[in-house]
Design brief:
This protein has 15 helices and 15 strands. The chain has about 450 residues and is of the alpha/beta class. It has two domains: about 180 residues, Alpha-Beta Complex (Aspartate Aminotransferase, domain 1); about 260 residues, Type I PLP-dependent aspartate aminotransferase-like (Major domain) (Aspartate Aminotransferase, domain 2), CATH 3.40.640. Helix 8 runs parallel beside helix 9. The two termini are about 35 Å apart. Bound molecules: pyridoxal-5'-phosphate. Pyridoxal-5'-phosphate binds next to helix 6.
Length: about 450
């Protein structure tokens, strides 16, 4: 990849400066998940593969794949052309409209989804997929409660936020009635103080206790991220997902895998649950389905669940259901994953990344754990070590973000976790260089506060 962006691209990105745009946006457009004064705008003019260029033409390592969605990588002409063709042909369509991209997307999703999952409800975001999973689970089972885990994120709409376990839920409590909390498969800081090789999956057994105490007949579904996303990239121990499957089968509870973050190759399989050969009843996806080129989410379900709605009304819908441009983007994106063997690439690059992150954890006192599945890598910093720094975690967080930005690494650091999640097309050279820069940034932030 060349350092200097081609002139045509620079021209296409426009002559506006990032500062001008930031001032104009600041006046009229709100930033998400932040006090507005603390917002950190991302200057992105255009991108190519695993890299993007800011408005000054500087090249960045996209280690967050924008917001964990650009799995395919930037500037893929196949998707761009598919969107443009669809816009020419049919840009606006009734939710019940018939068109090729919609039919093809249904087929492709059935092809790549785990097991016999066969039907898709096509919405616009991960949050909407979760909302509809919740509604469908309640409609099918007739049961009012659901189980969700403590360190989870399921989306920003009120229902999805009620399922969410992390702090983003707190300002809006109380949310939905009947969301029961369960512990996470967070092995590094196991809630029971156990180690994975001798824990007998206490965190899954705990869910069984919750079910028994609440009454199995009252619980519609268990919601769990395939691999926990923005709360820390927790990889469940082998046997965990199977255990959940068995619990659900035993009690007639629906198993919902939230693969919004972990799906579409991020972990080196199409979906994280594929690592353990588990077929959920319902599965929510978004992000990588279009690689962020157009907004889309989907709720996928097995045939016996879809058949419930053959004669019963499906009380779900939205104006932009199966939006033509999103469908076209998703079809082209899924085909590109297949054509380019990107899931295999995620697995191969991920094996290297895993070894590197584990080595960092072994050798550096500031690092608690390095964990990685496919191209979903996380460095969890040692909480005690970070607390000894001047200003503790809040100061370190600011210092690290500055140091990463100075080295043109776009990566998320949140609650002691630094995520290494580049687009799946990343090359070994880009991954190694970006990781080197990331380690330099950590070292600088630590030195500044020691
Ligand atoms: N579920 C998980 C696991 C997520 O990571 C997210 C978003 O980050 C969502 C749901 C919500 O998706 P969206 O932001 O598209 O509404």
């Amino acid at each position: 990849m060349s350092e200097a962006p081609p002139q045509t691209h620079r021209e296409r990105s426009g002559a506006q400066s990032a500062q001008d745009l930031a001032e104009r946006q600041r006046r009229h457009v709100l930033y998400t998940w932040t006090a507005q004064r603390q917002a950190r705008p991302v200057s992105i003019a255009y991108g190519e593969g695993a890299m993007f260029y800011d408005h000054e033409g500087k090249r960045w390592f996209d280690f967050e794949s924008q917001v964990f969605n650009c799995n395919l990588g930037h500037g893929d002409q196949r998707v761009i052309e598919a969107i443009s063709r669809q816009a020419q042909e049919l840009a606006c369509a009734h939710p019940a409209a018939l068109f090729e991209a919609k039919a093809r997307l249904g087929e492709l999703l059935a092809e790549v989804s785990p097991g016999d999952m066969s039907h898709a409800f096509l919405c616009l975001s991960g949050s909407e997929a979760i909302e509809n999973a919740y509604k469908v689970a309640r409609m099918i089972t007739g049961r009012p409660k659901v189980i969700a885990r403590r360190r989870s994120y399921h989306g920003a709409s009120m229902g999805a936020l009620s399922l969410t376990g992390d702090a983003r839920r707190r300002p809006l409590e109380p949310g939905l009635w009947g969301v029961l909390r369960a512990d996470d498969p967070y092995c590094y800081r196991c809630p029971y103080g156990l180690k994975p090789d001798g824990c007998a999956l206490q965190c899954a057994t705990h869910i069984e206790h919750v079910i028994e105490m609440e009454g199995p007949d009252s619980i519609a579904a268990i919601f769990a991220e395939g691999v926990t996303g923005s709360n820390g990239g927790f990889i469940p121990p082998d046997g965990y997902w199977r255990h959940l499957r068995e619990l659900c089968d035993k009690h007639g509870i629906l198993l919902v895998a939230d693969e919004v973050f972990s799906g579409f190759g991020r972990t080196g399989e199409w979906f994280a649950v594929d690592h353990w050969g588990v077929v959920p009843d319902l599965m929510t996806v978004a992000k990588g389905i279009t690689s962020g080129y157009a907004p889309m989410g989907a709720l996928l379900m097995r045939p016996e669940l879809a058949s419930h709605f053959e004669d019963e009304q499906l009380w779900c819908g939205l104006t932009s259901y199966a939006h033509p441009i999103s469908c076209a983007a998703a079809v082209a994106t899924i085909k590109a994953y297949q054509e380019d063997g990107l899931i295999d690439n995620a697995r191969q690059q991920g094996a290297w990344l895993k070894a590197e992150l584990e080595a960092v954890a072994r050798s550096e006192p500031w690092c608690g754990e390095g964990r990685c599945l496919g191209l979903f890598g996380t460095l969890e910093l040692d909480h005690h070590y970070i607390a000894t720094l001047e200003g503790g975690e809040p100061a370190f967080s600011v210092a690290l973000k500055d140091a990463l930005a100075q080295r043109q690494v776009h990566a998320l650091y949140k609650d002691h976790n630094l995520f290494i999640t580049p687009p799946l097309c990343v090359t070994s050279e880009q991954l190694a260089e970006g990781l080197g820069r990331t380690q330099e940034a950590i070292a600088e932030a630590l030195t500044r506060l020691s």
